[in-house]
Amino acid sequence: MSHSNPPSPHRFAGNGPLKGRIRVPGDKSISHRAIMLGALAVGETRVSGLLEGEDVLATAAAMRAMGASVERGPDGVWSVHGVGVGSLLQPESALDMGNSGTSTRLLMGLVASHPIDVTFVGDASLSKRPMQRVITPLSQMGAAYEARDGDRLPLLSRGISPAVPITYRLPVASAQVKSAVLLAGLNTAGTTRVIEPVPTRDHSERMLRGFGAKLEVGEENGARIITVHGEADLQPQTITVPGDPSSAAFFAVAALLVEGSDLVIENVGLNPTRAALFDVLRDMGGQIEELDRREVGGEPVADLHVRHSALTGVDVDPAIVPAMVDEFPILFIAASMASGTTTTRGLEELRVKESDRITAMANALTLAGARVEEREDGLIIRGTGGDPLPGTPDGAAVTTHLDHRIAMSMAVAGLASSDGVEVDDTTPIATSFPTFMDLLEGAQG
Ligand code: S3P
């Protein structure tokens, strides 16, 4: 896991346009869910295109520790043999979640309605992240918790069966919290409901249905209401994971910014609850064309043809924040080299990601020579008008705070800078995008 690796600094500098065709790895959110649901279905689930990043491997190891078999075949297709809903085993030792908030929060939901005790541990970044948001609803269902400082890892979960079905209104727009409650509801007799005032990524709902869970999605007073019926009986599936739009985002912005670029990014998932970045980039003047729109694994997918473009700053509508919540760091890079000002608001959740992404990006961009003003809930960025950023001064490096998306965003900034950007640690990139450095080298060849 990333916390045991020594830091690996790297200087990213321009090395010509990005050209040709690349294929980004599988979607992280979908990969976690495929393994978790496969581990709850009796029989063999086969998963192709699984993201083999550290975060997903942490989920795989956790499901093995609770009785499932999760193995990679020689053809790269993963095979999961599940234990059945209600039959997760008590793990013998603590589950190491590494850097992964999604693994932790979704698994906390899964184990809450099983009569097992599970200890979760993680790296320095994950150990700072708030877990109260899942502890609150899962405690209402009957689970109990002991955690450092009340809600931080290391955390002991004492699950319960039978658990109590609840109706829970999400106080923050969070797919992780929604999914934790729905997963707990799988082994809970009766109906468990989540009310979602602001829609968040719906991969859990789509995949639960695909596995045969009884799940309904309705609407009341503008809110989404998701109902899952327990106790569920999941049927094994064959799943193809589409490419991760959150990974494609780095290459899309790199191609927009670096002069002469003309790049096709194949097989990009474009679920509307995820893909808002590409719309914002088009509003800024970015040439991003969708080719061959199709469906892969129940999700909309297309190839994206991206060409170098002159960008103009925009005022980003806070209503679309959940549909690009992980893409703000890379949007900030595009904004820093656009003409005019980009304003973002309503980004409070960015402060509790793998790092405080508002402060981390404000500091990193300022060091690289961008004009950035930090607000409590967002950044205001005055762009260079198409000129490259100066880059980091000699002897200085941007701090990634164990956050893959800060590392990759500043890498892209480096490609479009005059003197390059020194990133203090590239090891976190392996949590979500292990092929990033190779693809970057290949596309610039
Ligand atoms: C995720 C949900 C988002 C996102 C994270 C993955 C998921 O977190 O930031 O990278 O797979 O459900 P929140 O639900 O906390 O916003």
Automatic annotation (TrEMBL):
Which InterPro entries does the entry link to?
A: Enolpyruvate_Tfrase_dom (IPR001986), Enolpyruvate_Tfrase_sf (IPR036968), EPSP_synthase (IPR006264), EPSP_synthase_CS (IPR023193), RNA3'P_cycl/enolpyr_Trfase_a/b (IPR013792)
Metabolic or biological pathway, per its Swiss-Prot or TrEMBL entry = Metabolic intermediate biosynthesis; chorismate biosynthesis; chorismate from D-erythrose 4-phosphate and phosphoenolpyruvate: step 6/7
Annotated positions binding phosphoenolpyruvate: K28, G101, R129, Q176, R357, R405
Q: What does this protein do?
A: Catalyzes the transfer of the enolpyruvyl moiety of phosphoenolpyruvate (PEP) to the 5-hydroxyl of shikimate-3-phosphate (S3P) to produce enolpyruvyl shikimate-3-phosphate and inorganic phosphate.
Tell me which UniProt keywords the record has, alphabetically.
Answer: Amino-acid biosynthesis, Aromatic amino acid biosynthesis, Cytoplasm, Transferase
| Pfam families, sorted | EPSP_synthase
Regarding protein family, the annotation reads: Belongs to the EPSP synthase family.
Task: Report which reactions are catalysed by this protein.
Answer: 3-phosphoshikimate + phosphoenolpyruvate = 5-O-(1-carboxyvinyl)-3-phosphoshikimate + phosphate
Cellular localisation: Cytoplasm
Q: What is the lineage of its organism?
A: Bacteria, Pseudomonadati, Pseudomonadota, Alphaproteobacteria, Sphingomonadales
Q: Which residues bind 3-phosphoshikimate?
A: K28, S29, R33, S174, Q176, D326, K353
NCBIfam families (alphabetical): aroA
- The Enzyme Commission number assigned here is 2.5.1.19
Q: What is this protein called?
A: 3-phosphoshikimate 1-carboxyvinyltransferase
Gene Ontology BP term (one): chorismate biosynthetic process
Q: Spell out the subunit comment.
A: Monomer.
GO CC, one annotated term: cytoplasm
SUPFAM superfamilies the UniProt entry points to: EPT/RTPC-like
For this chain, one GO molecular function annotation is:
3-phosphoshikimate 1-carboxyvinyltransferase activity
Report the HAMAP family cross-referenced here: EPSP_synth (MF_00210)
* PROSITE patterns cross-referenced by the UniProt entry: EPSP_SYNTHASE_1, EPSP_SYNTHASE_2
* First-level EC class: transferase
Q: Where is the active site?
A: D326 (proton acceptor)
